[in-house]
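Entry:
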Amino acid sequence: MNVRLSPASLSGTVHAIASKSDVHRLLFCAAQADGPVTIEMNSTSPLSDDILTTAFVIKALGADVRKEDGRFTVTPSDVSPKAPIFDCRESGSTLRFLLPVAAARCDEPSFTGSGRLPERPVEDLLNVLKARGISVSSDKLPFSFNGRLQSGAFELPGNVSSQYITGLLLALPALSGDSEIRLTSPLQSASYVNITLHALSRFGIRTSILPRGYLIPGGQTFHSPGTIVADGDWSNAGYFFAAGALGGTPLSIAGLTPDSPQGDKSIVGILNNRMGAPITKVPDADGTYTYTVTPAEELRACDLDVTNIPDAFPVLAVLAAFAKGRTSFIGCERLRFKESDRIASIIAMLEALGGRAEEDGDGVIVYGADETGGLTGGTVDACGDHRIVMAAAVAALRCTGDVTITGAEAVRKSYPSFFDEYNSLGGIVHVI
């Protein structure tokens, strides 16, 4: 699907969808619980391709999964599946969360995937599984396991992928003995591990944070909470926060909580305190908040570390292209291993739209509108990356000409209703 977007200003209120990161983790916890679990999302939350993939693989774990508007109901099974085949499609988080869980619970599981997934790294995770009782047929998809995961010490670098740590945290509580995750380098994307720890605590799982890792007591039971409510998605909401900062009238985003463990909530402080777009919030009856972004009179450049907010980088780069001054992004190393090489694809996107950006080691420098004149429009290749699609759509709001996005269907990976919301708020989208 290709789309053409024209300059516009979004206004009104959009309700945050359920957090993809949170729902992934809640589904894996529910599949291991001691009774049925209903995961409630707001009724407008679309089921993204990644979430549907996780629901699909936990069925292969033996769970019964029923999906309805705004909820999943998961009924786990006590029976260990024999030689299950897990198709993780294009979801890196599904694969990395699943590998330790399947190693702990299944005999002879096989794994496959599509798109860029077979190219995305899992070698460090496979190595720690091999060290604790698992034999692996190959280091790249497709592959299969033999053996069962044994408790003990799991040593791996903290700067490779927080998803490896999450997968282990989801698997190790049910092993017979105590386990320890030992990090040999500082942890990056720590906020995503915090989401995992929060999800585990809601199922009664105990963990302890160590100076360089985590202690996970064995023999634990995932206790069903009955009904559990998923957190609102700060990652995808960030694109509408940015749209509000670039627009001509205030834009509100509802259904978010300020005490969420999601790191991407830091976009509020970045916009409000550093870039010059005022944000206010008011509480709602359901315990969440509605945030209102007032357009910036002039966006200010600022240096940003995206180590713990990698998913926010694409839209922050768009904001930087309209700001006054140069923005230096650091902590970008892991961005090369997302759905696209996001360092390369963001630079290509900005240059295609008339901007200027360049690599700076493992960082990126984006030149502001005072040097480039701002973005003018053009054609952007989505590179199969949902966040490139949404970032280009936000950029289109302030471009002086139309923006065409090729491969815009990639947005279904995390936010299938994105363009519907965009249109309802005043965006101008034509499918071509």
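The first helix runs from residue 20 to 31.
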